[in-house]
């Protein structure tokens, strides 16, 4: 549709070309697609029913009834990150941690043995690519809404994040249990219009100058009812290939404002989107810190888990 409309405008401007246009059967496409910017078509809308589970853990939350479920999007081949998380914050016992994967481009990964061993792998049949992260995030929301409403809170957290689960579990007691989402809120985001950018968005895909407030995708926490609200809103919100912005668009449609997570006294961001060098007492005052390789997580965790209370 997008290709046809500018073509039609060009052709209809000239009487000589009009004849050609009629000859090539343009008339029929004119009647089907009016000129001008194409409206958000149904092809831009995502639907949970488009994809199926390859592996699922449908009864996990009903059995465990966790206060918090952490969902980690990770590519199928990255077992190293999954194992590091299992042996560090993800296995700390206070929370339930699950891994959300798609299919690798080759489609050759079989995670069923790992899934039997750990019972924490959820796999769906979409291609696990950077451009499909929006699909993945929406499927995470849908999984939480469908299979984990028994948890009070959910967290979406990337695989390269340090999570201070001890501090987070304390904070959860102060959080509202409905309509609540918190993290590092970005209020002045706008689409990049230069085609060279990794985050390029055309005006066709996103016409507005600004993004609504959204939480940085590295890690954020929400009451589980938000997952269903985002899932429902997503039916009417055309997809953009920036997963955290997309959640922001769905939140706006659902009438939910993300809450910036800062400490009470110092205005410090509790969801640290930068990487910080490990320092036990600095990390004790953050919920997440960004940019950890698996071996680095494994290295710092024993000290942190044993000594974080001595700060
Ligand atoms: C996203 O996943 C779908 C379903 O597997 C696939 O058809 C599509 O090519 C993927 N898109 C990208 C950009 O990888």
Present the secondary structure layout.
Layout: H1 4-12, H2 15-23, H3 26-32, E1 53-55, H4 60-64, E2 68-73, H5 79-87, E3 96-103, H6 112-118, E4 121-127, H7 133-147, E5 153-157, E6 162-163, H8 165-172, E7 181-183, E8 185-186, E9 214-215, E10 219-223, H9 225-234, H10 243-254, E11 259-260, E12 271-272, H11 280-283, E13 288-289, H12 294-307
Parallel strand pairs: 2-3, 2-5, 3-4, 7-11, 12-13
Antiparallel strand pairs: 1-4, 5-10, 6-13, 7-10, 8-9
Helix pairs in contact: 5-12, 7-9, 7-10, 9-10
Bound molecules: 2-acetamido-2-deoxy-beta-D-glucopyranose (NAG).
Give the H and E element order: HHHEHEHEHEHEEHEEEEHHEEHEH
Distance between the termini: 60 Å
Q: Count of DSSP E strands?
A: 13
Strand content: 15-25%
Q: Sheet with the most strands?
A: 8 strands, mixed
Output mean pLDDT.
87
Using only C-alpha atoms, the radius of gyration works out to 22 Å
Compute the number of structural domains: 1
- Helix count? 12
Helix content: 25-40%
Q: Name the shape in a single word.
A: globular
User: What do we call the CATH topology?
Assistant: Spore Coat Polysaccharide Biosynthesis Protein SpsA, Chain A
Overview of this protein structure:
The chain has helices spanning 4-12, 15-23, 26-32, 60-64, 79-87, 112-118, 133-147, 165-172, 225-234, 243-254, 280-283, 294-307, and strands at residues 53-55, 68-73, 96-103, 121-127, 153-157, 162-163, 181-183, 185-186, 214-215, 219-223, 259-260, 271-272, 288-289. The chain is an alpha/beta fold and 311 residues long. It has a single domain (30-307), classed as Alpha-Beta Complex (Spore Coat Polysaccharide Biosynthesis Protein SpsA, Chain A). The strands form 3 sheets. The chain has an 8-stranded mixed β-sheet with strand order 1-4-3-2-5-10-7-11, sandwiched between helices. A 3-stranded mixed β-sheet has the order 6-13-12, with no helix packed on it. A two-stranded antiparallel ribbon has the order 8-9. It is globular, with a radius of gyration of 22 Å. The model is unreliable at 1-42 (pLDDT under 50). Residues 126-127, 129, 131-132, 135 line the site of 2-acetamido-2-deoxy-beta-D-glucopyranose. Its EC number is 2.4.1.-. Pathway: Protein modification; protein glycosylation. It is found in: Golgi apparatus membrane. Keywords: Glycoprotein, Glycosyltransferase, Golgi apparatus, Lipid metabolism, Membrane, Signal-anchor, Transferase, Transmembrane, Transmembrane helix.
